[in-house]
């Protein structure tokens, strides 16, 4: 059985079972109410028979066997004298002991009870009503009638049973039909997903017109397919670019090794190492950057500790061989919370990028912004500015795409492979900050904003 058919069957079964149970409860309550009303009416009738007999006792017109009682009111009746003897009774109770032994508490009062297995010829349980009359003593009149079965009217019970069956069946059919119609869009979505899986991700599932849960499901599926298509396209482009970048140093190493083999007498070990080492270093740099990007994409958390950003920038500037003049304006004691090694890589990537394209000077500025509407706790701004040609406004987001180099940066002699800025932005974002390119009078002005840690 298909899963969707199983869902239809389960929903129809559950609905019919619930409706059937409710119908049964309703039928039982209705029959109970009918039984109670009929029992109350029967008790009133039995009481009326006793009251009529009490009238004759009170007037001294008692005869045995009883009546005088109207034919339509004849019930088992006994008249018990003050000494406890049955002095009069209907024909079916002649020469029998009293049908009950309870009495009303005072004359004129009435008491009733259900008495079983008594003096009644038919046996069973009877509703017995006792009434008291005072005439030279307390006389007790007992009148009775057989108790009613729970199904007072068999026809009503039959109608309720038949109605329950028909109503439950109709509800089950209606529920199954409704669920089947409701699940048709789901079947269409599933079929389209199977088609997409076997073909390509350019297709989308049909979205129902009705603004219901299935409509929202189809929208979510299409949004997911959009994101998946973008991700796969990015991965394909990334793999293509990575293969291209890796092929260059590998090809260079191979060529240098082949040259050394062809001219083994002229190629010394030191010369070969000097020729191969730059390509190995480039290969190592690419591999390291790819590993960092993989960790950032996977959301691998770093060690988050308070970091003195002023000290970290100072150490980073001292540890590099800087070409040209570097001007730094660093506010003292600027603290952030994050991974020290990744923050150091962010600083290194920005400074190296600025050095690569600066004409003469790189300016590094660090300041604290205490009042910021987007960050009540304050933010830290790191600005790296070079005096080079700058970046056009329409290309400021392009430089953060992986393996992207602008026209002025396409020469591999500059040392860039197009991963430094994407890594720097992802590091900033993983620390709850942002990396953007902002306007400047000259050159490219990179600004990092991170939450401050007091």
From TrEMBL:
InterPro entries: HAMP_dom, HATPase_C_sf, HATPase_dom, His_kinase_dom, HisK_dim/P_dom, HisK_dim/P_sf, Sig_transdc_His_kin-like_C, TCS_sensor_his_kinase. PANTHER family: SENSOR HISTIDINE KINASE TRCS (PTHR45436:SF5), SENSOR HISTIDINE KINASE YKOH (PTHR45436). This is histidine kinase. It catalyses: ATP + protein L-histidine = ADP + protein N-phospho-L-histidine. It is found in: Cell membrane. Keywords: Kinase, Membrane, Phosphoprotein, Transferase, Transmembrane, Transmembrane helix, Two-component regulatory system. Its EC number is 2.7.13.3. Its main location: membrane. Residues 180-233 form the HAMP domain. It is an enzyme of class 2 (transferase). One of its GO terms (molecular function) is kinase activity. PROSITE patterns: HAMP, HIS_KIN. It comes from the Bacteria. The chain crosses the membrane at residues 12-34, 151-175. Residues 241-454 form the Histidine kinase domain.
């Amino acid at each position: 059985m298909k899963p969707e058919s199983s869902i239809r069957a389960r929903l129809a079964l559950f609905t019919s079972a619930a409706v059937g149970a409710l119908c049964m409860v309703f039928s039982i309550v209705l029959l109970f109410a009918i039984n109670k009303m009929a029992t109350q009416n029967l008790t009133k009738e039995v009481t009326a028979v006793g009251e009529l007999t009490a009238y004759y006792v009170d007037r001294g017109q008692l005869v045995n066997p009883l009546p005088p009682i109207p034919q339509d009111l004849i019930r088992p009746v006994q008249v018990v004298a003050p000494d406890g003897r049955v002095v009069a009774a209907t024909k079916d109770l002649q020469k029998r002991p009293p049908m009950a032994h309870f009495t009303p508490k005072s004359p004129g009062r009435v008491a009733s009870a259900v008495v079983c297995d008594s003096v009644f010829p038919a046996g069973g349980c009877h509703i017995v009503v006792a009434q008291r009359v005072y005439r030279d003593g307390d006389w007790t009149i007992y009148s009775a009638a057989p108790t009613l079965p729970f199904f007072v009217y068999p026809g009503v019970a039959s109608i309720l049973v038949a109605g329950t069956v028909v109503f439950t069946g109709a509800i089950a059919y209606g529920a199954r039909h409704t669920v089947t119609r409701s699940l048709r869009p789901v079947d269409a979505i599933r079929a389209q997903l199977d088609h997409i899986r076997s073909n390509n991700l350019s297709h989308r599932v049909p979205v129902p017109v009705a603004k219901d849960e299935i409509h929202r499901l189809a929208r979510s599926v299409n949004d997911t397919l959009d994101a998946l298509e973008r991700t796969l396209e990015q991965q394909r482009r990334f793999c293509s670019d990575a293969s291209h970048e890796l092929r260059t140093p590998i090809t260079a190493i191979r060529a240098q090794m082949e040259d050394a083999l062809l001219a083994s007498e002229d190629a010394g070990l030191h010369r070969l190492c000097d020729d191969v080492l730059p390509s190995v270093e480039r290969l190592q740099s690419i591999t390291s950057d790819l590993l960092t990007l993989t960790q950032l994409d996977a959301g691998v958390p770093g060690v988050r500790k308070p970091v003195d950003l002023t000290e970290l920038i100072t150490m980073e500037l001292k540890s590099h061989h800087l070409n040209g003049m570097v001007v730094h304006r660093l506010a003292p004691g600027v603290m952030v919370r994050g991974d020290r090694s990744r923050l150091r890589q962010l600083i290194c990537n920005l400074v190296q990028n600025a050095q690569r394209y600066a004409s003469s000077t790189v300016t590094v500025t660090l300041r604290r912004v205490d009042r910021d509407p987007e960050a009540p706790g304050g933010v830290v701004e790191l600005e790296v500015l070079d005096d080079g040609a700058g970046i056009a406004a329409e290309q400021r987001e392009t430089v953060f795409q992986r393996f992207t180099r602008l026209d002025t940066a396409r020469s591999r002699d500059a040392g860039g492979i197009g991963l430094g800025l994407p890594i720097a932005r992802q590091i900033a974002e993983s620390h709850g900050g942002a990396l953007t390119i902002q306007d400047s009078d000259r050159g490219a002005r990179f600004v990092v904003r991170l939450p401050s840690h007091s």
